[in-house]
């Protein structure tokens, strides 16, 4: 990890502390006036999101903070992402296709949005099909999009049953072996992975990216 300068430390701290105006003004200044590396700015955002996630787990932050964090990330991303494409001399070849959605019965999308965002900037073609996605819609979208990886997201414990049911339906439809399945969300661990029948779980967006890289044969 590159040592952070004062400005970078401020950006991480202000994002994590929900100082929206100051954080966004600083991010825009770094990207648009100082030609900071867009990937570096996004990495700083990810570091801030890790802090936000820890504070949420510890009961210091609640859903409104997660929502605001997601919104700030999107706003910084809207400025940073076009600069990445530009800097790399046009559209880069996509590494693989990932379909992602929050399972039925669950309306959380912050984690899913961060994973989608991180996969996108790492070169994957991502299709996000939203929240509270019924089993049938997953199957329709998989048949249309032909992904290499399917990500099932869920924050609530009731989502575990929805994940299990969704994966069982993939089996029944005869498509289970055509892609890898990763799950992610609040309380997910190896026990939940085993219960649902997924191939792997990711505790955060970086791990999700690494799983997709491994499965599509891209060196991490």
Task: Please give a structural write-up.
This protein is 57% helix and 10% strand. It is built from 9 helices and 5 strands. A 5-stranded parallel beta sheet has the order 2-1-3-4-5, sandwiched between helices. With 220 residues, the chain is an alpha/beta fold. The chain has 2 domains: 6-87, Methionine synthase domain (Methyltransferase, Methionine Synthase (B12-binding Domains), Chain A, domain 1), CATH 1.10.1240; 97-215, Rossmann fold (3-Layer(aba) Sandwich).
Summarize the structure.
The protein has 220 residues and is of the alpha/beta class. The protein contains 9 helices and 5 strands. Helix content is 57%, strand content 10%.
Write the layout of secondary structure elements.
Layout: H1 6-16, H2 20-33, H3 38-57, H4 63-87, E1 97-102, H5 110-121, E2 125-128, H6 135-145, E3 149-153, H7 159-172, E4 180-184, H8 190-196, E5 200-201, H9 205-215
Parallel strand pairs: 1-2, 1-3, 3-4, 4-5
Looking at the structure, what is the overall shape?
globular
Please provide the ordered H/E string of secondary-structure elements: HHHHEHEHEHEHEH
Distance between the termini: 15 Å
Strand content: 5-15%
- Look at the structure and name the CATH superfamily of the largest domain: Cobalamin-binding domain
What is the C-level CATH assignment of the largest domain?
Answer: Alpha Beta
CATH structural architecture of the largest domain: 3-Layer(aba) Sandwich
Structural class: alpha/beta
Q: Main sheet?
A: 5 strands, parallel
Unreliable stretches (pLDDT < 50, length at least 5) are: none
The CATH topology of the largest domain is: Rossmann fold
Q: Determine the fraction of residues in helical runs and give it as a percent range.
A: 55-70%
Number of discrete helical segments: 9
């Amino acid at each position: 990890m590159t040592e952070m300068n004062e400005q970078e430390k401020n950006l991480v701290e202000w994002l994590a502390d929900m100082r929206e105006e100051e954080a966004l003004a600083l991010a825009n200044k770094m990207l648009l006036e100082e030609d900071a590396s867009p990937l570096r700015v996004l990495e700083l955002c990810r570091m801030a999101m890790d802090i936000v996630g820890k504070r949420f787990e510890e009961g210091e932050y609640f859903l409104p903070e997660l929502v605001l964090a997601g919104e700030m990330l999107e706003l910084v991303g809207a400025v940073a992402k076009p600069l990445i494409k530009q800097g790399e001399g046009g559209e880069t070849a996509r590494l693989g296709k990932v379909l992602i959605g929050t399972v039925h019965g669950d309306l959380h999308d912050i984690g899913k949005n961060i994973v989608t965002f991180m996969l996108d900037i790492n070169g994957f073609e991502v299709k996000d099909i939203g929240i509270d996605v019924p089993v049938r819609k997953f199957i329709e979208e998989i048949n249309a999009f032909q992904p290499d990886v399917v990500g099932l997201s869920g924050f609530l414990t009731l989502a575990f049953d929805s994940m299990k049911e969704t994966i069982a339906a993939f089996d029944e439809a005869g498509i289970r072996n055509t892609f890898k399945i990763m799950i992610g969300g609040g309380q997910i661990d190896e026990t939940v992975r085993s219960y649902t029948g997924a191939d792997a779980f990711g505790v955060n967006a970086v791990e999700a990216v690494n799983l997709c890289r491994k499965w599509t044969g891209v060196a991490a």
